[in-house]
Design a protein that fits this description.
Chain A has 19 helices and 22 strands. Chain A is α+β, with helices and mostly antiparallel strands. By secondary structure, chain B is of the alpha/beta class. The radius of gyration of chain B is 20 Å and the shape is globular. Classes of the chains: A alpha+beta (532), B alpha/beta (334).
């Protein structure tokens, strides 16, 4: 595993993407093919079947290090990564590792059929044999989750450099359902005829946010506009009489949306649609709020009642494959025309609908329209250049999301909790309250939005202004006012305040604002009435 | 009749009633005994200061005109009903643990400390006592420092790598203590060492009191980076990636701190590289120091106080957490 550890260190020790890509490309050229394949698999979130439970790992690490289990758990909460915590609490050793990445993975997989005692002996001996990064990586092979700042983008770039094949092709090859056991380096990366399985999706094209107005985009007639729907981005694949639904995060969600099976009745095989999954009640003018969709997201199987209460449709806005042909290189206007043609005869109750385009001839008409997005349960507008191909990944230029400004409220910080992992030594998780008479009523938590310098400064303040401790949570003197931004507001009987916010974050630290001038619970209820 | 404790924890700081003085107070008081010159321990506005001879120059540099007296390590001094003496804490040059004895009962306030010899600070000496006041900045079993020579080898290899690639090596560290310790670890054969004003000012103070440091060149507005190929720039962390740093062109940055032991913090703070170098005791160091004091009563002041005190209690000590205003944030001081 030495070479893999060297690669990991090279990538982990730099913030420069050029250096990361060079290190990866080198590895994809020189390492053994099975190690390369596993590296691609691990860095894209795949891992060998878990041979040991994390509960056992914790117990054994506690025993082997002499650190009581409670102390191990407290340390884990601060470090934020189990594999790292284990690697750090065990006594240091000089690595004596002769195995390869693949041989370690195979050894772990053979443990699956062994009894607990054998597993334990194997893991303990591995811990004694492996030091430093190698011990950490061994643990990662069991726990999974190689988050090391290698995006899909960087990996495809490195693979492209190592193989000489174009990046978009690499991105497409890595998509979908493959597992390292079912493919080889050759079949996945190199083979000329990438005879993909029917479920393989195309890489999603992602838009950048339009920070200023659209005027800089030039002639409005070059552009098409649609609502930016507040649902889940999804790709619907109809091939060989089967259907597959993929999320943007490359998760296969087919089983969660059985109503989309009927799509095959309305569209021919060899069709791939890009669109938004939305809950839409029969006959309703607009989709239901994201809240309704949430009841569907977490469930792997869907009871009949829920199917009825929260029926999901795909609002299609792009056509990527038509009659078995990949048409992503064609201009958007042409793909859209085909999509409209294909959707022309869709009946009212079909699980696919065409996402309408807005007519506009100047930007100010569009700006007025955007202001009404909330009424349509939309987050704003999507702007797409009429002649744009369907690219892969987040690319600037042809697609823009022009979102509504978030809702905001000024709130008082009343509790603070320290973060973990990257934020192990900072207070970063805060609870905020609004006034209700002379009382402060907590209504949301927020974790993000401040700079590192601001987090350090608030951390120093929290240490000196703690009123009470409840385990890891500190109640602090009500003093600081923050402007909280959020995307939506919903009634919530579970919360004391009666509301729940969507995507709350700290927009600004209002050092200029006295405590008494924070917003009130009535303000929040008024927002619920208008936007809820 | 129960006796007054020798030291109590008040809103002004650690107080000795028998001698009517404070140790590292955070509000202005008449008489302050200071463990070391870092800002959270040596504050402005005290009537009189008492610190080791080696700690005073930095305090004067930082605090300006103060009424202060120096004391040698191990020298006993009677203050009111208390006998006090200062003993090396190994944290930074001049840092001390303060021993206070009243009627045969001995307390030690250790300030900040580390137990390994860094080759520059007076090495930590355990002091036998009944009551020991300890920090716990790195009071978790995940913190364990590698030998200084190993880290120095990594540091110099990184610098040499930067130099070979035609890049300037930027090393961020706190100006007092950590920066000079790093200087003593650097191999001047690799290339020239350039310093930020904040670092160089402290260098000058320490050189004047006889501490040997390698040659350094102050970065002035006139300095031409091109004339210093293969240089390492030592600067406060805030200077990393700043406008000030940009003039050096192609560069790699690194940060030296005990927090760099955690990958998450390393990735947040370090720029390109993080070196695990701390002037605080690691987990084995804290436990060793506490055992060596033979104290039964332990007061944990700053850091992972709750967790560390619970562990000590599990292991048979009487340990409690006492609130203080000493910093153990992940800030520049560590």
């Amino acid at each position: 595993m030495k070479d893999f550890a060297a690669l990991f260190n090279a990538v982990d020790q730099t913030t420069k993407t050029t250096v990361k890509v060079a290190a990866l490309a080198e590895y994809f050229t020189t390492a053994a093919e099975d190690d390369r394949l596993w590296t691609v698999a691990l860095f894209s979130g795949r891992r060998p079947k878990r041979a040991v439970t994390t509960t056992r790992l914790r117990e054994w690490a506690s025993e082997a290090s002499g650190v009581p289990l409670w102390l191990f758990e407290d340390s884990y909460a601060i470090v934020g990564d189990l594999a790292e915590t284990i690697a750090l609490v065990l006594p240091p050793v000089d690595s004596d590792d002769t195995g390869t990445l693949t041989s370690w993975i195979n050894a772990l997989r053979e443990l699956k059929d062994e009894d607990d005692a054998t597993r334990k002996a194997f893991v303990l001996s591995a811990w004694q044999q492996l030091g430093g990064t190698e011990r950490f990586l061994f643990n990662k092979l069991i726990t999974g989750g190689f988050r090391i700042g290698i995006s899909q983008k960087l990996m495809t770039r490195a693979l492209s450099r190592a193989t000489g094949k174009p990046e978009p092709e690499m991105a497409h090859r890595l998509m979908g359902n493959w597992q390292p056991d079912d493919v080889t380096w050759h079949s996945l990366i190199e083979a000329e005829d990438a005879s993909a399985d029917a479920s393989r999706p195309y890489p999603f094209y992602l838009a950048y946010a339009l920070e200023d107005g659209p005027e800089a985009l030039g002639d409005p007639t070059d552009w098409r506009a649609e609502w930016k729907w507040d649902g889940i981005r999804g790709q619907l694949i109809l091939r060989d009489g089967d259907y597959f639904v993929w999320s943007r995060g490359e998760e296969l969600m087919t089983d969660r949306f059985p109503e989309l099976a009927r799509a095959a009745d309305h569209m021919p095989p060899g069709t791939v649609l890009d669109g938004e999954l939305l809950v839409w009640q029969p006959g309703a003018e607009f989709p239901s709020s994201f809240n309704a969709l949430q009841s569907r997201i977490g469930r792997k199987t869907v009871p009949k009642k829920l199917l009825k209460e929260a029926p999901v449709i795909l609002h299609a806005y792009d056509l990527l494959e038509w009659q078995g042909e990949d048409i992503r290189a064609r201009p958007f206007a042409e793909r859209r025309a085909l999509l409209e043609q294909a959707s022309a005869d869709l009946p009212e109750d079909a699980p696919i609908r065409l996402s309408p385009q807005h007519q506009f001839s100047d930007w100010s008409t569009l700006a007025d329209l955007r202001d009404t997005a909330r009424e349509a349960q939309a987050e704003g507008l999507m702007l797409k250049r009429a002649d744009s191909p369907y690219l892969s990944g987040r690319k600037k230029g042809d697609w823009w999301k022009w979102k509504l400004d978030p809702l905001t409220i000024d709130a008082v910080m009343i509790y603070a909790q320290s973060g973990s992992g990257r934020r192990a030594n900072l207070f970063t998780d805060f609870t905020f309250a609004v006034w209700n008479g002379n009382d402060l009523v907590p209504f949301t938590k927020a974790y993000s939005g401040l700079t590192d310098a601001e987090f350090r400064s608030i951390t120093a303040w929290v240490r000196k202004n703690t009123l009470q401790r409840f385990g890891p949570v500190r109640q602090v003197t009500p003093h600081h006012v923050f402007e909280i931004a959020f995307e939506g507001i919903q009634p919530s009987p579970r919360h004391k305040s009666g509301v729940a916010l969507r995507f709350p974050r700290m927009l600004r630290w209002r050092k200029d604002k006295p405590l008494q001038e924070a917003n009130t619970l009535d303000d929040l209820k008024e927002m619920l009435r208008i936007y809820g | 009749m129960t006796r007054e404790p020798v030291l109590t924890f008040t809103e002004n700081g650690i107080y000795c009633a028998a001698g009517d003085f404070y140790i590292d107070p955070w509000r202005p008081v008449d008489r302050a005994l200071i463990t070391h010159g870092h800002a959270d321990h040596a504050r402005d506005g005290m009537g009189r200061y008492l610190a080791t001879h080696a700690a005073l120059p930095v305090m004067r540099h930082r605090l300006g005109e103060i009424t202060a007296e120096g004391i040698a390590y191990g020298e006993q001094r009677i203050i009111g009903g208390a006998t006090v003496s200062f003993h090396p804490a190994g944290h930074v040059p001049g840092s001390a643990q303060i021993r206070v004895e009243v009627a045969g009962e001995v307390w030690v306030a250790s300030g900040d400390y580390k137990v390994i010899n860094d080759g520059m600070s007076e090495p930590f000496e355990p002091v036998k006592c009944h009551h020991f006041i300890t920090e716990s900045t790195f009071g978790l079993p995940v913190f364990r420092w590698a030998p200084q020579a190993d880290v120095a080898a990594d540091l110099n290899a990184w610098w040499a790598g930067c130099a070979a690639a035609g890049k300037t090596a930027f090393l961020g560290a706190y100006s007092l203590g950590k920066a000079q310790r790093l200087l003593s670890m650097l191999d001047p054969d690799v290339g020239p060492i350039l310093t930020h004003t904040a670092v160089e000012n402290t260098n000058a103070v320490l050189r004047r009191q006889g501490i040997t440091l390698p040659d350094t060149t102050l970065v002035t507005p006139e300095l031409a980076p091109k004339e210093h190929p293969g240089a390492l720039v030592l600067a406060p962390p805030s200077a990393l990636g700043s406008q000030w740093a940009r003039r050096f062109g192609a560069q790699e940055s690194a940060f030296a701190s005990g927090w760099m032991a955690l990958r998450g913090v390393r990735r947040r703070r370090a720029g390109d590289r993080g070196f695990v170098i701390s002037d605080h005791a690691d987990w084995p160091g804290l436990l060793w120091a506490i055992r060596e004091t033979e104290a039964e009563n332990i007061y944990v002041t700053h850091g992972y106080t709750d967790i560390f005190a619970r562990y000590l209690n599990d292991q048979g000590w009487n340990a409690e957490v006492v609130p203080t205003q000493f910093d153990s944030d992940g800030g520049d001081s560590e």
